[in-house]
UniProtKB/TrEMBL annotation:
GO terms for molecular function: copper ion binding; oxidoreductase activity. The keyword Oxidoreductase applies. CDD domains: CuRO_2_LCC_like (cd04205). Belongs to the multicopper oxidase family. InterPro entries: Cu-oxidase-like_N (IPR011707), Cu-oxidase_2nd (IPR001117), Cu-oxidase_C (IPR011706), Cu-oxidase_fam (IPR045087), Cu_oxidase_Cu_BS (IPR002355), Cupredoxin (IPR008972). Keywords: Copper, Metal-binding, Oxidoreductase. Residues 1-97, 107-236, 388-427, 493-552 form the Plastocyanin-like domain. The keyword Lyase does not apply. It holds the Pfam family Cu-oxidase_3. PANTHER family: FI03373P-RELATED, MULTI-COPPER OXIDASE. This is Laccase. It comes from the Eukaryota.
């Protein structure tokens, strides 16, 4: 079953969920993306942070509070591979007092994801290299697990609705590699009511976007003539890399498609099903609706697009407390890539370059601790792990996130929301400026004082220069040297005046644009070890993760059922270890008695 089953609960319920691992040779863990895990940080899921893997042929029961309310999803947090292969499903937590209850009577969940034919071969830095079309940035995307071109073999994904009813459509981007989908529904205006699960002021939109890991809830009334209406998910960056149409980005393969389609189908319509279309190069056809959907009314409303600064003022939280002028503590977090990029298909994966998201003055790429860090509070077996110990007396944290790399990253925080108070205005490097990717530092319009390198040891990188022959000779390309890992960082003097402390949106996932920056505020009040990481799956095994250690003195004891591993003791299991030692000695004494071996007599006296 793909996507996996829906987990549905009411706000405040206790959810108990048993994972039975029938994988033959892989451990697994499950993360509940967007839930705060108040009081149960060990059930957050990420491997070697909250728990060790649930081993094959064993099971584990997650038990946690259904909080907060909203639209979420669960997915494997064992590695990038399992969730890209489909180990994921939706979560809906119903709010006690639903502010928009009068606007709809029906609900529907729609998970959108890009799909790889063979994810395993793509989770290497060389996966996206020219010559490896299996790992092109995007070829297929699915609606609720289904892709279709309208043929008998691959029918269109259908969202079947009752005419005359109003629906709350809960959209989830559960993607792997694609950063973003822009969603439109022909002939139907939409009212945006929640972002990442949090209610926002109801706002009419004609399109909205969901980055990898983001969710958006819209109300749509089925008030049009019956028929099939086209639903589009556009990967906007993908459209700039379309085979034969876009620009070839070094290190990326041209994509085979950038728009994927489903149909909103009015139940009982006598319109013919839509005809098949040709999705690929050189056709790139757009399928056509039928019945009322063959000639839909134009839609009206705002464009909700949080890739760009303007998107953040389209709506605001329904209930928003203004923020204090200054946080208790400000961290500068840098996103970047370290190491040479002169990768070839025979390089060992992950050895030629490592992503990082870490404090500016540390810049450590993720490495797994020997024992899950929550179990040790980071005090054992965690050398080289980018843990940030938040001082216990600190409540409000500001993260100034500088992306000193040529690609967008979609950052996700575990254990709570942040509020997005400021984002860059990056017209010179916007999505319609492909030259930004290869822009030599000397020519770029970023002011000298704001330029910063993502890799302090390598200002210049070797790149495959296959621009002239992108399709003909993808492997045999000359190499060029260019400065690639840099960004135009946040400048407090110039940029702070643009911050919004009155009505910033609540988010748990955020796109930080290439060579750009964002500023967020969060409350470090939920005791636990919380990941902050890039949600683009190829960047996870390459190390783009960090952990905040929040209020260690208030972290609750780890239950003895939680899987652990490695050489370090779990900090709260002293009783258990004493019982284990007692049991060991009891058995040893019994053995000694039976065989007279001298076992169990206690330590030898010298
Ligand atoms: Cu990333």
């Amino acid at each position: 079953m793909y996507p996996g089953p829906l987990i549905e609960a009411n706000e405040g319920d206790i959810i108990e969920l048993t994972v039975i691992n029938n994988l033959r040779a892989s451990g697994t863990t499950i993360h509940f993306h967007g839930l705060h895990m108040r009081g149960t940080p060990w059930n957050d899921g990420p491997v070697q942070i909250a728990q060790a893997p649930i081993m094959p042929n064993t099971n584990y029961t997650y038990r946690f509070e259904a909080y907060p309310a909203g639209t979420f999803y669960w997915h494997s947090h064992m590695d990038a591979l399992q969730q890209s292969r489909g180990l994921k499903g939706p979560i809906v937590i119903h709010r006690k007092e639903e502010p928009f209850a009068k606007m709809y009577t029906e609900e529907m969940v729609i998970m959108v994801s890009d799909e790889w034919r063979d994810p395993e071969s793509c989770f290497k830095i060389d996966g996206a290299m020219p010559g490896n079309p299996v790992c092109s940035d995007a070829k297929y995307a699915s609606f609720n697990g289904q892709w279709g071109d309208g043929t008998d073999t691959y029918p269109y994904p259908l969202l079947t609705v009752k005419p005359g009813k109003c629906y709350r459509l809960r959209w989830i981007n559960s993607g792997s590699s694609a950063e973003n989908f822009i969603i439109t529904i022909s002939g139907h205006n939409m009212t945006l009511i929640a972002v990442d699960g949090v209610p926002v002021k109801a706002t009419q939109v004609k399109s909205f976007n969901i980055h990898n890991g983001e969710r958006a809830d819209v109300v749509v009334c089925m008030d049009q003539d019956p028929g099939y209406y086209l639903v589009t998910a556009e990967y906007d960056y993908g459209c700039r890399m379309l085979r034969g149409k876009g620009f070839p980005v070094p290190g990326f393969h041209p994509v085979e498609a950038c728009r994927w389609y489903a149909f909103l189908r009015y139940a009982g319509t006598d319109a013919d099903p839509p005809r098949p279309y040709r999705p690929w190069y050189p056709d790139f056809e757009v399928p056509r609706g039928t019945g009322g959907g063959s000639d839909p009314d134009p839609t009206t409303g705002a464009v909700f697009d949080t890739t760009v600064r303007e998107g953040w003022s389209v709506t605001e939280p329904l209930h928003a407390a203004p923020l204090a002028p200054e946080p208790d503590l400000r961290y500068y977090v840098t996103l970047g890539l370290k190491g040479p990029t002169d990768v070839r298909p025979d390089n060992v994966p992950g050895t030629r370059g490592r992503w990082y998201s870490d404090l500016e003055d540390r810049r450590m790429s993720w490495t797994n601790p020997l024992t899950p860090v929550l179990h040790t509070k980071g005090k054992c077996g965690a050398e080289g792990v980018p843990i940030t110990n938040v001082p216990e007396n600190v409540t409000t944290i500001e993260l100034v996130i500088n992306n000193l790399s040529p690609t967008e990253h979609v950052m996700h925080l575990h254990g709570g929301y942040f509020r997005v108070i400021n984002t860059a205005k990056f017209e010179w490097c916007a999505i319609d400026k492909p030259e930004c990717f290869m822009m030599p530092q000397g020519l770029n319009p970023c002011p000298e004082e704001d330029r910063a390198n993502g890799d302090l040891n390598h200002t210049w990188q070797w790149l495959p220069d296959y621009r002239p022959n992108v399709d003909k000779h993808p492997i045999r390309t000359p190499w060029i040297k260019a400065p690639l890992y840099w960004g135009c960082k946040y400048n407090e003097g110039k940029d702070k005046p643009h911050q919004n402390l009155q009505t910033p949106l609540y988010k748990d996932t955020l796109s930080v644009w290439q060579r750009s920056w964002s500023v967020v505020r969060l409350e470090a009040t939920n005791p636990g070890m919380w990941l902050f990481h890039c949600h683009l799956q190829p960047h996870i095994p390459l190390g783009m993760m960090m952990v905040f250690n929040v209020k260690p003195s208030l972290q609750p004891p780890i239950p003895e059922t939680v899987p652990t591993q490695g050489p370090c003791p779990v900090w709260s299991w002293a009783d258990k270890y004493e019982r284990m030692a007692e049991e060991y000695h009891r058995k040893a004494r019994a053995v000694g008695k039976a065989y007279g071996t001298g076992f169990g007599k206690g330590p030898a006296k010298h």
